[in-house]
C-alpha cells in the first residue's frame, strides 16, 4: 500500500492499494469547499489510482458542513469526473453528517456514482462483502 501525502497535511491523506483495488482516504478537521475539490482531483488524477478501485472514505473526524450551494458544486464536480470513479465509494461518517452524505449519494446515483454513507464499520464491510471485499476495513493512514 502506498501512502500519499497531501497538499494539506493533517487535513487529508490517502493511500492506494493497487493489489486490492482500494483507495483509503482520511479527511479530518476543518476543511472547506476548495480543499474538498482539491482532494477529489488529487485522488482521481493520481497515477496509481484506477477507476475500478473501491474507495473507503473516513469522515469520522471531519468538521465541515457545506452550504447547499457548495454541496451542489461538489456534486457537479463529481459528475464531471464520474468516469474516474466507477466502483463503490463507502463513506464512514459521524452521526451528524449521515443525512447530508445520504442526500449527496442520492444526487450522485442519478449519474451513476455508487456512493453510500455508513455510521459503522460492520455495515460498511457487509456492503463490500457483496463484491468480495469483506476484508476491507478503515484504518488510520500513517
Describe this structure in words.
It is a single chain. This protein is α/β, with parallel strands linked by helices. It has a single domain (2-129), classed as Transcription Regulator spoIIAA. The protein has helices at 33-45, 68-80, 98-109, 121-129, and strands at residues 2-4, 12-17, 22-30, 54-63, 88-92, 114-118. The chain has a six-stranded mixed beta sheet, sandwiched between helices. A hairpin with a 7-residue loop joins strand 1 and strand 2. It is globular and about 35 Å long. The chain starts with a strand and ends in a 13-residue tail after the last helix.
Would you kindly provide a brief summary of this structure?
33% of the residues lie in helices and 27% in strands. With 142 residues, the chain is an alpha/beta fold.
What brief labels describe this structure?
142 residues, alpha/beta, Transcription Regulator spoIIAA, six-stranded mixed beta sheet, 6 strands
